[in-house]
Specification:
With 452 residues, this protein is mainly α. The protein is built from 16 helices and two strands. Strands 1-2 form a two-stranded antiparallel ribbon. The N terminus is likely disordered. This is Amino acid permease.
């Protein structure tokens, strides 16, 4: 199949992106999407549900995500084009199943900028109450959308600055937590097995449920693959960036959860589970550290918002190019900046409305449904494409690793809350009805599939 950039017909050049992203840019992009400060979003409730063993839940989630990151990397090497989960499932397994993969991940990617608008506006409103919540939503949405319209190069530079800032805040937080623990009991108190295993509260079902919740913090490493057409060296850099961002992000999350547990062992005594890490920051470093952490949370909404909106717009571009969505609308690129401007504006509008009217807990839970569904399909794609279709009988590389990734994600998936599963399957049912009419009873295939 010819690359989209070389697909020309009589001087009519197909829409294409600029290749500007290096390996470093891609790794930062993945970490920016996940955000180094992601534990702040779920810490209180997740720590309570795991009986004070959130570091263990994060470790389980990281292992699960590493298997999936490997599979994303293998599929990105085989198909270095945009579309990520949608593209890989379509090319490796079935065109129609590819649509459902994209439909599931679309829910995930759309909800990312939506939830960060909500979180950012909430904390900004708490910091400056005189400015209403809805004004903060509009302000954050405008900045994120403007940056994405200017181009992925500008977005990458903005992410780099913000990720460095959040990284510094995380380091400061960890240092203050360690200082607080050492001040109480001496240096030996920094080493404890309790955050990973507490015999009094350990329950495997609670850890697995916590790991499913912890997957929320990892959602984003997969978005790197949506930028394959903007990467300088996609075949080499995409898979490396997916694995590195997942590993680095996981270590950052585990360290934060570990020191936080040492500072505040009683996970049932937070003033509010929603702001648990702020209680811990205040206990470890006073009001100054708590305020700094709040500012970092607001900064994280910009990195996650920029990357989430960019990824969703590229997914829509790929689906539009395959004519499973409106080609004229979804493949339109800005004549100067070469960005899918209509998609970006549409996502901005959806996120603003959702941020104003939807509850944050529902949005957070639904993100895991789309993410885990997509991860399972990508793991399955590696097995089908490499092991069976190409007959590369490398059992560990092309069967065992992706199979373990699939099974782990499936186990986490079935442990999602009942309401999350119900709403998620309703979303898939809507997609089924849409696809049924769009493909005339699943008889029509996208043009790109016919060319394979």
């Amino acid at each position: 199949m010819s690359n989209v950039q070389s697909n020309t017909t009589q001087g009519n050049v197909a829409p294409h992106f600029k290749r500007v992203l290096t390996l470093k840019d891609l790794v930062i992009y993945g970490i920016a999407f996940m955000t180094p400060i992601a534990p702040a979003y779920i810490y209180g409730f997740a720590a309570q549900s795991t009986g004070g063993m959130l570091p263990l839940a994060y470790l389980v989630a990281m292992v699960a995500m590493m298997f999936s990151a490997y599979s994303y990397g293998r599929m990105a090497a085989a198909f270095p084009i945009g579309g990520s989960t949608y593209t890989y499932t379509q090319r490796a397994i079935n065109a129609h199943l590819g649509f459902f993969a994209g439909w599931a991940m679309f829910m995930d990617y759309v909800l990312v900028p939506l939830i960060v608008f909500m979180v950012g506006a909430s904390y900004a409103n708490a910091l400056i109450p005189t400015i209403p919540y809805w004004v903060w939503v509009l302000l954050i949405a405008s900045i994120i959308t403007f940056v994405n319209i200017l181009g992925i190069g500008i977005a990458a530079k903005a992410n780099q600055v913000l990720v460095i800032f959040m990284g510094i805040v995380v380091v400061i937080f960890v240092i203050f937590c360690m200082k607080a623990v050492v001040g109480e009991d001496g240096g030996s108190s920094l080493i404890s097995i309790t955050p990973f295993f507490n015999g009094d509260t350990f329950a495997m079902t609670a850890i697995i449920s916590g790991a499913a919740m912890a997957c929320f913090s990892f959602l984003g490493f997969d978005s790197i693959t949506t930028l394959s057409e903007e990467a300088v060296n996609p075949k080499e850099d995409i898979w490396k960036a997916a694995i590195l961002s997942c590993l680095i992000g996981g270590i950052i999350f585990i360290v934060q959860a570990y020191v936080a547990q040492l500072v505040w062992p009683d996970v049932n005594s937070f003033s509010s589970a929603d702001t648990a890490l702020f209680d811990i920051a205040n206990a470890a470093g006073g009001a100054l550290l708590a305020t700094l952490y709040t500012v970092a949370i607001i900064a994280s909404t910009f990195t996650a918002g920029i990357t989430g909106q960019a990824s969703a717009s590229r997914l829509m571009f790929s689906m539009g190019r395959d004519e499973v969505l409106s080609k004229k609308f979804f493949t339109h690129l800005h004549p100067k900046y070469k960005t899918p401007v209509y998609n970006i504006l549409l996502l901005c509008s959806i996120s603003i409305v959702g941020a104003i009217f939807l509850p944050i807990n529902v949005v957070a839970e639904l993100m895991n449904f789309g993410g885990l569904a997509g991860f399972m399909l990508v793991n399955l794609s590696v097995i089908v494409y490499y092991y069976f279709r190409k007959k590369e009988k490398k059992f560990i590389r092309y069967f065992l690793i992706p199979a373990l990734g699939f099974l782990i994600c499936l186990y986490l998936f079935i442990n999602l809350s009942p309401i999350t599963l119900k709403v998620g399957f309703i979303w898939l049912a809507i997609g089924f009805v849409y696809a049924l009419f769009k493909t005339k009873g699943f008889k029509k295939y996208p043009p790109s599939f016919k060319e394979m």
